[in-house]
Amino acid sequence: MNSDRVREGSKLTAAEAEGGRGIGRAHGKAILLGEHTVVHGTPAIAFPLPALSAHAVAHRDRPDVSWEGDSPAGQYFRFAAGGIRTAERASSGAHVAVEEALRRWGLAGEVVEVALDCEIPPARGLGSSAACAAAAVRAAADLYDRSIDSGILYELVQCGEQFAHGRASGVDASTAVATGPIWFRAGAARGLAIGLDATLVIADTGVPGATQHAVAAVRRKLESDRRAAQRVLEHATDLVESAAADLAAGHAESLGKTLLEFQELLAELGVSTPEIDALVTAAHDAGAYGAKLTGGGLGGCVVALTDTGDDAARVRAALSRAGAARTWIVPTRDGQP
User: 235 or 177, which is more confident?
Assistant: First the structure.
């Protein structure tokens, strides 16, 4: 069995983490550039957020547990997967991912109880649904002593993402199981060379995002004018490629300008908000090289690029004063907190 320990302060009880159960963990993500356009074929760059994680414990069904009415309300939830009675009423992307895993393993008749404790705020564009799905599948695999490579795990998490978000690009599923920053395009991810020693400050507007609505709105806008859409997508691709070169070469100022330019593109697509705009302005006024929304938009979070140390602290404080509900720090070089 997996020897990972349930994190300190977890709502998962000690009894739930004892032997005879499977344990799984995964982390959140922040998209640096490429949200929305990645759904339409452009590349994207994303960073894992190991400091924001989801923890799962799986064990075989207990007859004294009733699952009627269960739903993933909040950051701690349970579900039962497998068996005839559960397959038709999946309650979350994590539920769907485990159902598919059991089916592939020839264990569809088994009933598995999964408890999830997710510290990633939901509906903020930080990959909470993908992280929960990855942690749940890893816990189920641990329970049944099944090896699972990153490719299969991605496929299973992506099943959950399609349930949770509709048309999902796969970038969240890829980053949830990645160990470092990634370049993602058309369902394929690879590690990204990072030569930039800087800091990403992530700030939560405090307003839940609306990913499905935002994705649908962007699709309608792009489909309404094919020629304009082609220009937008070509411009987005150029910006993401420029950002990758700047990350490799360590050009923070150039990368910051690229972030601001991509924010303008996202605003043109209609997914920015006054709260997002206020945080982008606050970060830039405090000395950040650049800032933009991250994730689906229409709420959610902003990511700002700064130097390390005092500069990052100053930008972080400015974002809090401008109304950020909470902030997180992520170094660019290794994606570690």
Answer: 235
Nearest to 78 by CA among 47, 121, 115, 123: 115
Please name the residue ranges forming H helices in 73-210. Answer: 83-86, 93-104, 128-143, 150-165, 171-176
d(CA 51, CA 207): 21
> How far is C-alpha 172 from the geometric centre of its chain's CA atoms?
5
pLDDT in tens, 203-256: 999 999 888 888 889 999 999 999 999 999 999 999 999 999 999 999 999 999
Q: Which two three-digit tokens encode residue 133?
A: 């799905």
Helix and strand numbers (H, E) in the chain are 10, 10
Q: Among residues of the chain, what percentage have pLDDT more than 70?
A: 87
Which residue has tokens 């006054």? 274
Specify burial of residue 130 (Cβ count, 10 A radius: 0-12, 13-18, 19+).
Answer: buried
Q: For 167-180, give the DSSP string.
A: S--SHHHHHHT-SS
